[in-house]
Amino acid sequence: xxxxxxxxxxxxxKFKYSQxxxxxxxxxxxxxIGLDNDTGELVAGGIGKETETILENLxxxxxxxxxxxxxxxxxRVYAVDFANFADFNIAWEALFNTISVPPPARSSVGxxxxxxxxxxxxxxxxxxE
Length: 129
Description:
- The chain is of the alpha+beta class.
- It has two helices and six strands.
- The protein has helices at 46-64, 85-96; strands at 2-5, 20-23, 26-32, 72-79, 105-110, 120-127.
- The protein has a six-stranded mixed beta sheet.
- Strand 2 (20-23) and strand 3 form a beta hairpin.
- Helix 1 runs parallel beside helix 2.
- The radius of gyration is 14 Å and the shape is globular.
- The protein starts with a strand and ends with a strand.
């Protein structure tokens, strides 16, 4: 059975898609960009600030649907410019250095553009029995 889940906490998607899909024990989170949850606008500050915002919004989504960092299995990162990717890693490690679970497997892909001129987008996969 597949359940299509949409958050009542995060801003609604601007386009037609499910924010989170549960397929058996797997949860697939659509790509998140660094949108301010109050204004719906992309946060200023580049890839580091966008990454922080994505992870904050992901925490809200996880809490809403009974997931936690220990369920996070995989993250796929799409970045427009790898010249600033160190700022992504700083934001990423700031989170994973403060929680007691190891980080997920991760891949990174260079792209020419992202929605709303974002510099980073991240897809997440969770596993919860």
